[in-house]
Amino acid sequence: MLWSDPENEPPKELRDMQEMLRRLGLFMALAMVVAMIVIGLR
């Protein structure tokens, strides 16, 4: 931790990574649901 860091504010890279992981997780969950439906219909 640097003294110049703002309070409780993650760096932009970390926030961008968290946003990307959130979208990736959402996409993976959606892909799983679609895969389950496709497997179920066979």
Summarize the structure.
Keywords: Membrane, Transmembrane, Transmembrane helix. The protein has one helix at 12-41.
How would you describe this structure to a colleague?
- The protein is mostly helical and 42 residues long.
- Helices cover 71% and strands 0% of the residues.
- The protein has one helix and no strands.
- The termini are far apart.
- 0% of the residues are buried.
- The mean pLDDT is 87.
- Keywords: Membrane, Transmembrane, Transmembrane helix.
Low-pLDDT segments:
none
* CA radius of gyration: 18 Å
Mean pLDDT: 87
Query: What's the main sheet like?
Result: none
**Could you say which overall geometry the principal axes of the C-alpha atoms support?**
rod-shaped
Keywords: Membrane, Transmembrane, Transmembrane helix
Pfam families: MmpB
InterPro entries: MmpB-like
Can you give keywords for this protein?
single chain, 42 residues, mainly alpha, 1 helix, 71% helix, transmembrane, MmpB-like, membrane, transmembrane helix
